[in-house]
Amino acid sequence: MADAVTGAAEFADRDVIRRLLNDSKTWAFVGLGDNPEREVHNQARLLQQRGKRIFPVHPSGDTVLGEPGHASLADLPERVDVVGVYRRSEHAGAVVDEAIAAGAKAVWLPLDVIDVAAARRARDAGLDVVMDRCPAVEWALRR
């Protein structure tokens, strides 16, 4: 676990975090379904309230927070700035690979979602990467 924590720290650059929160316009939230009890729902709502356009990505394809859902990142109608990876760590790598293939500009893996190898693949593909950070907490600290 210590290696994962050390590796996650590699993807906590304050400038990248600030840029993604301040300059991004579109966020896809993988794992965002119609359950308002899930943390992904809270994070998507927060960023939506802060002016970000959100794209729910969930196999159900449900409309969430007033936005039409999509079954996968490949189904999105446009390239997004950031893909939030709200899946367990063991599934994060596949989502990161989909984000790379979909032409996303960045991936954000929230607290306790750690896949250092996937994060490095994304970075090597030219994406900005944030890992093991909470958008709500970082929003409060971004200035």
TrEMBL record:
<feature type="domain" description="CoA-binding">
    <location>
        <begin position="20"/>
        <end position="113"/>
    </location>
</feature>
<dbReference type="Pfam" id="PF13380">
    <property type="entry name" value="CoA_binding_2"/>
</dbReference>
<protein>
    <submittedName>
        <fullName>CoA-binding protein</fullName>
    </submittedName>
</protein>
<dbReference type="InterPro" id="IPR003781">
    <property type="entry name" value="CoA-bd"/>
</dbReference>
<dbReference type="InterPro" id="IPR036291">
    <property type="entry name" value="NAD(P)-bd_dom_sf"/>
</dbReference>
